[in-house]
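Input record, target 12 of the design panel.
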């Protein structure tokens, strides 16, 4: 299990864009499972949407990608690199994420070649699938 401080040693994201609170399972270069506790004080809720707060889908995708990034960047030889989006395919949103939800994200690396890779990620609230997609990424030096 990785705490927020330990996650920040692996990926470069920081508040307000660090969207993973902890990693609860990790198999470097294979798979990671992360948690995001969605609170009513998230800055994006101010405008999305007043009176009916909904976590933006693009931020759910970003959180899923960050969990995959931890799996990819955890090995010492990858520390300091940045995983950048190269593409997103087969994305589906199935349920809204709102304050009070605990988002559980599962990311599995499908293919890694040199500085390019592909991962499949899903996110859940209370065991119910809320989003899924395939992410292409490129590793680059910071």
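The sequence produced for target 12 reads:
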């Amino acid at each position: 299990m990785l705490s927020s401080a330990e996650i920040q040693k692996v990926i470069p994201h920081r508040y307000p864009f660090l969207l993973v609170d902890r990693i609860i399972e990790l198999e470097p270069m294979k798979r990671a499972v992360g948690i995001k506790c969605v609170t009513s004080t998230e800055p994006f809720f101010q405008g999305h949407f007043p009176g009916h707060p909904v976590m933006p889908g693009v931020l759910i995708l970003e959180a899923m990608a960050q969990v995959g990034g931890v799996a990819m960047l955890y090995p010492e030889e990858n520390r300091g690199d940045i995983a950048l989006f190269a593409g997103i395919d087969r994305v589906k949103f199935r349920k809204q994420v709102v304050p009070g939800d605990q988002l559980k994200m599962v990311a599995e690396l499908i293919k890694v070649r040199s500085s390019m890779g592909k991962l499949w990620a899903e996110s859940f609230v209370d065991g119910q699938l809320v989003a899924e997609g395939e992410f292409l990424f490129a590793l680059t030096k910071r």
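The mean pLDDT is 96.
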